[in-house]
Structures are given as structure tokens and as C-alpha cells.
Design a protein that fits this description.
GO terms for molecular function: oxidoreductase activity. It comes from Pedobacter panaciterrae. This protein is mostly beta strands. The protein has two helices and 24 strands.
């Protein structure tokens, strides 16, 4: 009888612990106890989450909606719906970034797919009086498809806009310098081509990408995450003018044909790869003090694996030292991530039904 009581007590404690984790009180599959709070629900295919200068979370939904979420109350306020967005498969309204000098120039950049012939475009809106107006096309006629559209945006310290593009289901275009597909592109904030790009007159900053969906700047480096085929999802350090191998190289240069191609084309190998794949998506660098164990780490969300992964970097930021997982299967497919100035982390789910914005603190 005593053994039975002890066993029942242990079972009760185990169930209670699971319920506590699910409620968002704490999550600790890695080695850091974190707290989660669902800020907003009832969303659909959240694609981007950006912490804005107004201390609001700016989000996109794939159907064409741009909204703000109040991180204190969770209230969702609609800003704008882009009527010409065509949401097809993985396509639709995707990435977004805000001008760092927002007070002087309140520009909001978005990338979306549209039209019967299905193309992608980058558009700059101006924010005023709670709405987005004055659309300016920065780049048009980006090949798009129901899969592999890339579409993460980032503005660098030297005031350049980076745009990731997928191969749009035409793998060979990733190696074609005359195609916008399978690249990381770099343009000025008005869409013109910078004079210091690798090839004069070309928007291409790097090539050989399959479906890059994460970008982050830190340590003087540009970090990128991208989807592999059935193997070799990647995190890369992006270097000016370099080749990242796709479709001739999957992950590391470790097969004979890959070694030959890598040597001939100056290919950069990933700093981390996953087989089986996890469907790597949004990426951010954690520099906050709120969760000190995460400092100098890349935080990566994934779709298929439905988790948040901490990639602890070495002192130079060149290598991944350790990898730890959090929120495994708690919120389904995770697409977007950002950090606030006070060190809180915000993620967006992308299940298509009752998607959420989740706050992570400690």
C-alpha cells in the first residue's frame, strides 16, 4: 500500500508539472527556466514579428494583414491590408522591417507575392496617423511560387536593405547571377543598387540559397537560416559575394562532387546543419540581460520541429558551441522571432488556425 501511494503521488506531481509547463508558467527542456505568456490569439499564418520604436509589436499575416500588438495588453490593432496580395501555398504577405531611423523617416518595408503570373515585390510604406500610405515599389518581378519564396528583410547599420529570395522551385536559378532567385539581395533604401555591391550593377550580395527565411546581424556578421531539401537545413554566416552551394551542395562540402564544386566556386559551409530537417525559419541574436544564459546566442524558430533552439556562439561568433531546445511542440509551427530592448523575446506561430504571439521572459 505504501508503494502504491508513493507511485500515485509521483504520477500526480508529473502530471501537475506538465500542466504547469503548458500553462506558460515555465519552460525548461534546456537548462534555463523561462516564462511564456500568450499575448494574442486568433491570428492566421503569422509571418513576421518586429519590435517597433513605438514599443509595439508589428506583425504580418500571410493573407495580407499588417497589424500592431500591444505587448502590455495583447490588443491587436489593424494597420493596413494589402488588397493585391495573393496567398498561395507558402506565398503571400511575408517579411517586414522598419527603418531604424523611424522618427525621421517612418518607413515600413514589406515583401509579398501577387498577380496571376505570381511574382514577389518589395514595397515601402510610410506610417502616419495610425495607417500605412504612400506605397513605393523598391523591387518587383521577384520569381515566386507556392514554395521557396525566402522573403526575410533586414536593414543594416550602413542603411542598406537586405532581401532573401528562395529558388521559387527552380533550383538552378540559385546559381544564375541574372536571376533574383536563390539569393540575398542588397539595395539602398530607395531600391537603387549600392556602388559597393560585389558585382557592379547587380543587387546580388550572395548566391546559392534554397529558401532562406532567417536573418540576423551581430558580432559584425550576418547570420542566415535556410531550408534544405530532405536533409541539411542550415545556419550560415553570409559573406560578401560568396556562394552557398545550392543546388550543387547540400549542407557541408562532404561528398566528392560537392568538394569539387566548393573548391571551384569558393563555397562557404554552414556553421550548423540539421539532418533530419527541422524547417529552420526566423532568427535573431540575443544580446539582452533578462536571460543572461542566452547572451551571445542565435535564437532560431522552426516549423516542422515546432521549437525554439538556442545556438550558443563562441567568443568570435564564428562557431556554434552548444545547442538547446525550448517550447518543443508547445505552440506548433513557429515562423517569426524578435527581441525587445529589455530582453524579452517574442515569437509568432504559423499553423493557419488560431495562431499566436507569445512572449518569453524569465
Amino acid at each position: 500500500m505504501k508503494v502504491l501511494i508513493v507511485s500515485l503521488f509521483a504520477l500526480f506531481m508529473s502530471v501537475s508539472s506538465c500542466k504547469k509547463n503548458k500553462s506558460g508558467d515555465s519552460q525548461n527542456p534546456g537548462d534555463v527556466a523561462i516564462k511564456t505568456k500568450v499575448l494574442a490569439t486568433g491570428l492566421s499564418h503569422v509571418w513576421e514579428v518586429v519590435y517597433g520604436p513605438d514599443k509595439q509589436l508589428w506583425i504580418t499575416e500571410r493573407s495580407g494583414k499588417i497589424s500592431r500588438v500591444n505587448p502590455e495588453t495583447g490588443a491587436v490593432t489593424a494597420l493596413h491590408t494589402i488588397a493585391e496580395v495573393v496567398s498561395k501555398g507558402e506565398g503571400g504577405l511575408l517579411g517586414m522591417t522598419l527603418n531604424p531611423d523611424f522618427e525621421a523617416n517612418p518607413w515600413v518595408y514589406v515583401v509579398y507575392d501577387y498577380g496571376s503570373n505570381y511574382k514577389g515585390k518589395v514595397v515601402r510604406f510610410t506610417y502616419s496617423n495610425g495607417t500605412l500610405n504612400s506605397p513605393l515599389v523598391i523591387l518587383d518581378q521577384i520569381p515566386a511560387a507556392s514554395i521557396h519564396n525566402g522573403s526575410r528583410l533586414l536593414i543594416t547599420a550602413d542603411k542598406k536593405l537586405l532581401i532573401t529570395t528562395g529558388d521559387a522551385s527552380e533550383a538552378d536559378n540559385a546559381q544564375n547571377m541574372n536571376s533574383l532567385s536563390g539569393k540575398i539581395l542588397r539595395v539602398n533604401l530607395d531600391g537603387s543598387i549600392p556602388a559597393d555591391n560585389p558585382v557592379a550593377g547587380s543587387r546580388v550580395w550572395s548566391l546559392g540559397h534554397r529558401n532562406p527565411q532567417g536573418l540576423g546581424l551581430a558580432n559584425g556578421k550576418l547570420y542566415e537560416s535556410e531550408h534544405g531539401p530532405n536533409n541539411d537545413d542550415e545556419v550560415n554566416i553570409i559573406k560578401k559575394g560568396r556562394n552557398y552551394g545550392w543546388p550543387n551542395v547540400e549542407g557541408y562540402c562532404n561528398k566528392d562532387a560537392e568538394k569539387t564544386f566548393c573548391t571551384a566556386h569558393n563555397v562557404v559551409e554552414p556553421i550548423q546543419a540539421w539532418t533530419p530537417t527541422i524547417a529552420t525559419s526566423g532568427l535573431t541574436y540575443y544580446s539582452g540581460d533578462l536571460i543572461p544564459e542566452w547572451k551571445n546566442s542565435l535564437l532560431l524558430v522552426s516549423l516542422k520541429a515546432s521549437k525554439l533552439t538556442q545556438l550558443k556562439l563562441d567568443a568570435d561568433g564564428d562557431k556554434v558551441e552548444t545547442s538547446k531546445d525550448y517550447l518543443v511542440n508547445d505552440y506548433g509551427r513557429l515562423r517569426a522571432i524578435c527581441m525587445s530592448p529589455d530582453g524579452k523575446v517574442y515569437i509568432g506561430s504559423s499553423n493557419g488556425n488560431d495562431d499566436k504571439i507569445i512572449e518569453i521572459a524569465k
